[in-house]
Amino acid sequence: MILARYACNPAETRGRRFAEPDAPTRSAYQRDRDRIVHSTAFRRLVYKTQVFLNHEGDLFRTRLTHSLEVAQLARSMARSLRLNEDLVEAIALAHDLGHTPFGHAGQDALNACMAEHGGFEHNLQSLRVVDLLEECYPQFDGINLTFETREGILKHCSRDNARMLEAKEPGGVGHRFLTGTQPSLEAQLCNLADEIAYNAHDIDDGVRSGLISMEQLREVAIFDNFYCQVQRDFPELTARGKQRRLLFETIRRMLNAQVYDLIAMGNAALTAAQPDSADAVRASGPMLAFGSEMRALTTVLKQFLFRNLYRHPQVMQTNTLAKQIIGELFAEYMVAPQELPESYASATNGVLAVYEEPALHARVVADYIAGMTDRFASREHERLTGRRLLAELPVSETSC
Ligand code: MG
Distance from the CA of 95 to the center of ligand 1, in angstroms? Predict the structure, then answer.
């Protein structure tokens, strides 16, 4: 397929932090994707929470399956817009590598622990994983990805952190947060693919868990429109035992509508603006967005999910325990660095750093905790405190 002029072209990459010869058979972005898939952090995603804890059921999304769904959507839209599929795949597969155990509850708790030591942001953490924390290569830390993949991974960044990045890497991935400019279209596309993916799969997981119902969802216009359409087309699906197909078909149509809206709006904006390169895209305003009608519909859906699923008392109860686990783990490692594995303890110069460089020690502790899977964090907490806060549920009760 011929790439559009405004797509990122691997032959024109801004390159890697450490120069390496080109691979003989793969483009720079294919190589980035391969490095991400082979990373330790990528394998951990399978045991990290999306909304439901990993042990709550076998069929709920995890960070890994979420990342795969984002990659599928992003690739499919990229092909249609003639953007670089390999680059969107790399960005999508890496976009959640820095997520803590226990989803957003874990990230909020770790951010609170790090309040006096520079805070914790999961997007910046994803960049730390690929730039620093992966230990694969003899010559450098991290997996040495191209600028364009790193640009897409750093989706948000505070001004303070952007200044810190800019000091280390002038004109690098932190720069756009200081100048208010845009990333590549591939990066913009991955953001939207992320949103389309979780809007769809959180409905599916929410209904499967029993925390929300299809009846409740009918108060959301975009759901109700397609639900009624599917019922009209397939009246037999209202029968008991056919409800899963009804739900799946409704979600499928909703998802398609968002994808087609985004492609149509993107094509219209690109035709009007005619950017002649990826850098021209970076210098313009955002070019990929839903149309105003679709934006309004998805906003109502998000608000519904927030109120009824993410803030469901059962989810909140688990979140409270998850925050307690993260907070107590952090406190333990801060006073007892000998409990950290050797590679982390040596990064802080052992006990000395606790007293002499508390911010450095805290960052090492945050890196270690952020890398944990849900179940490892839970077990490690039990080992250090003697208390088990999250009981693992028997699979038979929850797999449906
Ligand atoms: Mg995501």
Answer: 6
